[in-house]
Every structure is written in C-alpha cells, then in structure tokens.
C-alpha cells in the first residue's frame, strides 16, 4: 500500500486533506461507520511515508484541515448568518477555529515521527494512542470541544458500539484508530477487526442497566421558531401561544420544551400563562420542563425550569459555550462584531440534583453539555432518564444537527439510560438506552414527538468510572508503542 502513495510531498499533503475530508462521511448523517478504519489507515500510511517530523507535522495538519473544515464548517453559519458578523471576519474566524482543531492531528503526526518505533505493531499502537489522546485532550482544553471524536462514528448499528458502556467514546477512538492502522497488514487488520466486531456484538447483548418502574408518556415539543425571530419582542406572544397550543393538544406525564423556548427571564413570563401551563401538566399528573432565563442579582443563567404537579425546580447550565454564552477575557472586541443575544451567562453549579418530575429522576442538560460524557455521569446513578434541551437553529441546515443527535446516542450508550431531546429546529428524538434512535421528528418542522419511555437503574462501567478506563487504555497503548523506540 505504501508503494502506491504519491512520491512528492505536496501531492501527499493534498491526499491527506482529501482523506481527512472523507472521514466526515463516517459520522451522521452519512453514518458510514465501516469506512472509519480505512480512513485512519490512510492517515497512518501517509505518516509512515513521511520522511521527517516536519513532514509528519504537515501531514497531520493537512488531514486535520480537511477533516474539520468539512465537518464543522457550520461555525461560519453561526457567526455570519445568525450572529450578524460580516463575512470578511466570520470566514477567517471559522477557518482559524478549524485550524486550531487541526493542531491536534498535527501534533500527533509530529510526535509520531519524532518517536516512531521500528516494529509495525508498536507503530500502530503509538499512532492509535496519539489520536485517541488528542480526542481526549480536545474534550477539556480551552473548555473543550470534542466534536467529531473518532469514536462517535461507531454508534449503532456499528457492532463496536458494544464497547461504549465500557470505554466511552475515547476508548472507541483508540480501537478504531488501532484497527485502521493494522489494516496496512491486511490479514492482521482484518482479523483484529473481526475480533472487535464479534466482541462488540456480544457486548451489545449485555444489559448493563435494568428498567425501573412503569413507562411514562412523554411529549417533546419542536417549535421551529426561526432564529432571526426568536428574540424579537413582536414574536413573543406568538411563541407563547404556539407552545401552549402544542402542549394542550399533546397531553403527557412529562413534556419537554427546547432550550430558551421562552427567551425572557422566568419572572417576566405572564403569571396567568404559567398557571395555564401548570394546569395543562396537571391533566396527566405530570410536569412540563422548559428552557428560559433565570437570574440572581447581576448573574443570569441559561436554565431548564419544571412546572406542574411537582414543586418548581431549576437546572442551570454549567458548561457554557465560549463566545456564544460567555466572553473569554480579551475578546470583547470580537463579540462587538457579532449580534448574539445573552452572551454573558453565569455558570450553574457543577453538580446539580436531577429534576424530580413525573415521578422520575431526570438529569437535564442543555445543548452543548451532552458533548461531555464525564459531566453527564455526575447525575448517576440517581437519574433514570437523561433529557437534553437544545436550540441548534444557530447552525442552520448544516451537519451540526445530525452530528449532535449522534453525540446524544453515545451518551445513552455510555450510561445505559434513555435520552430525550427537545429541540427548536431539530433533531428532536427519543434515544433508547442501547443508543438507537427510537423515534425522531423531521428537522425544521413544527411538531410534537410523543411516546413512552422507561427509566433505567444500575450503572455501566463508564457510568461508574467515566473516562478513566479510556485514559488507562490510551496510556497502555502509548507505553507498548514506545517499548521499542527506534
């Protein structure tokens, strides 16, 4: 395979960018999970052909640029189309963001060539460990952005999904990258992939958690409020009426509305409107959870509030989005060019009790927070249901929405809990504890997704240990890869 690669360095860099761009097909909405080992095999082959650490660095950078420019270019849509930033600033800002993300495979390429061992197995182990470590570091450095971690490509129906309750998404990243690297020795790679697939399929049959109590009826509201209208005062009354009509027509024990469904402070909502919602929830002896703003003095929060037969409860978002929900020090000038309402939220507490609603313990998380599996498990084992309230209208008709649903599938797999998603424009869905999407609404439509959901009890290994098993696996692979350094 190596002899067929281009001899000239510029051609190899162009091929690296093309392979990186192809990697996006492994994720939602394309979901070609079987392609992932081949993509990372191609990256590994190019690194082996690189003649110096500098060339390894450039190969990693080219691969990363192809991957992230195609995979998360929706950042430009958020900044320009909905944030109001001029194109001449939004374009370079989005490119710079993707370049920063590409620094992680770039660093992996450089370190690999600096420390490349002589043996093929050691090379494959080092390569996989470096890429998985990059995915993990991306999950916390600069507040974290683990979007498109390699492991996310292996949600159901991939047989490797069976490893998620054990190792989490970053453990899956390591397995996919290793199996891909081993494909350069076809028989070895095919054997390892077959063993992993059979083992993963077997693990998929393990019931790590058990149903708890009787199922409850749920109604997930998708308002489809255009982002350009969401914060306009003249649209406020229409928004209130729309949500009340949808709730009234779809009674359920647990009703979820999207993030900032009511884009005002809780105490600014008309009292008679809140009483009407409470009465609608009481029809089923249930509760409504909706997104709104809450405040304490000068601090204000992006919150989920419950209303109904249970006492009023509040969950406030803890992991905020840089530039979208808080302004990093020294970047106020940058935000002056963007029109992003309420971009200076305060952080909610790291640990918050699940919402006791509809007779269940529901762990709420808001939008971007479900990207962080080690934070989602904080609510376990008490919570029996996960619930995500999102508004991804900021990203338009892009890859962001199906990618976000795939992330929610991974959280359900890791925890053995059903995940409910109520979004403004999509993807509103019910995800089973096995990571499969049980039902979903078409994006960019107004509607209500109804169904029955059963809470689960118990804990998966990931639910108990978080990312530590994956970190241990990555460290072991790293040590074995460097055991015989050239």
Automatic annotation (TrEMBL):
Q: Where in the cell is it found?
A: Cell membrane
Q: Which PROSITE patterns match?
A: CN_HYDROLASE (PS50263)
* Keyword Membrane among UniProt keywords: yes
The EC number of this protein is: 2.3.1.269
SUPFAM superfamilies, per database record: Carbon-nitrogen hydrolase
- Ranges annotated as spanning the membrane: 57-77, 89-112, 124-150, 162-184, 191-208, 465-483
Pathway(s) it belongs to: Protein modification; lipoprotein biosynthesis (N-acyl transfer)
InterPro entries listed in its UniProt record: Apolipo_AcylTrfase, C-N_Hydrolase, C-N_Hydrolase_sf, LNT_N
Top-rank taxon of the source lineage equals: Bacteria
Query: Which Gene3D superfamilies does its entry note?
Result: Carbon-nitrogen hydrolase
Q: Which UniProt keywords apply?
A: Acyltransferase, Cell membrane, Membrane, Transferase, Transmembrane, Transmembrane helix
Q: What are the CN hydrolase domain coordinates in residue numbering?
A: 221-455
State the annotated membrane topology for this chain: Multi-pass membrane protein
To which protein family does this belong? Answer: Belongs to the CN hydrolase family. Apolipoprotein N-acyltransferase subfamily.
Which function does this protein serve?
A: Catalyzes the phospholipid dependent N-acylation of the N-terminal cysteine of apolipoprotein, the last step in lipoprotein maturation.
What protein name is recorded for this chain? Apolipoprotein N-acyltransferase
Origin species, per record, is: Dechloromonas hankyongensis
What does the record give as the organism's lineage? Answer: Bacteria, Pseudomonadati, Pseudomonadota, Betaproteobacteria, Rhodocyclales
């Amino acid at each position: 395979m190596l002899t067929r690669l281009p001899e000239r360095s510029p051609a190899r860099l162009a091929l690296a960018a093309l392979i990186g761009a192809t990697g996006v097909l492994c994720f939602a909405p394309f979901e070609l999970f079987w392609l992932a080992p081949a993509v990372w095999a191609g990256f590994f082959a190019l690194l082996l052909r690189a003649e110096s650490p500098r060339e390894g660095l450039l190969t990693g950078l080219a691969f990363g640029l192809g991957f992230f420019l195609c995979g998360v270019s929706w950042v430009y849509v958020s900044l320009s189309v909905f944030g109001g930033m001029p194109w001449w600033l939004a374009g370079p800002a989005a490119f710079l963001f993707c370049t920063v993300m590409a620094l992680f495979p770039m660093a992996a390429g450089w370190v690999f060539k600096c420390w490349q061992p002589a043996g093929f197995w050691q090379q494959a182990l080092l390569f996989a460990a470096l890429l998985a470590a990059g995915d993990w570091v991306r999950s916390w450095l600069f507040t974290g952005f683990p979007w498109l971690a390699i492991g996310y490509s292996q949600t159901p129906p991939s047989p490797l999904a069976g490893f998620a309750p054990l190792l989490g998404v970053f453990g899956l990243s390591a397995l996919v990258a290793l199996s891909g690297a081993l494909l350069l020795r076809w028989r070895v790679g095919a054997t390892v992939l077959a063993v992993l697939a059979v083992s993963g399929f077997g693990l998929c049959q393990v019931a790590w958690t058990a149903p708890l109590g009787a199922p409850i009826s749920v109604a997930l509201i998708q308002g489809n409020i255009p982002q350009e209208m969401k914060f306009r005062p003249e649209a406020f009354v229409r928004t209130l009426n729309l949500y009340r009509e949808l709730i009234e027509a779809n009674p359920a024990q647990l009703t979820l509305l999207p993030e900032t469904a009511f884009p005002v402070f809780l105490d600014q909502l008309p009292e008679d409107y809140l009483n009407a919602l409470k009465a609608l929830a009481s029809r089923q002896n249930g509760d409504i959870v909706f997104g709104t703003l809450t405040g304490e003095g000068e601090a204000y929060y992006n919150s989920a509030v419950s209303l109904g037969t249970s006492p009023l409860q509040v969950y406030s978002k803890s992991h905020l989005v840089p530039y979208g929900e808080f302004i990093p020090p020294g970047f106020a000038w940058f935000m002056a060019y963007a029109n992003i309402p309420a971009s200076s939220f305060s952080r909610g507490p790291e640990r918050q009790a699940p919402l006791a609603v509809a007779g269940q313990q529901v762990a709420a998380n808001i939008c971007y927070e479900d990207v962080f599996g080690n934070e989602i498990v904080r609510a376990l084992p008490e919570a029996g249901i996960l619930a995500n309230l999102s508004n991804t209208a900021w990203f338009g008709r892009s890859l962001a929405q199906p990618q976000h649903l795939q992330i929610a599938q991974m959280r359900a797999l890791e925890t053995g809990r059903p995940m409910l998603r109520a979004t403004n424009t999509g993807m509103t869905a019910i995800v089973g504890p096995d990571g499969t999407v049980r039902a979903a609404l078409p994006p960019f439509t107004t509607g209500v997704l109804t169904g029955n959901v059963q809470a689960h009890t118990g804990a998966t290994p990931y639910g108990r240990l978080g990312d530590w098993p994956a970190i241990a696996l990555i460290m072991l692979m790293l040590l074995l890869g460097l055991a015989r350094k050239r």
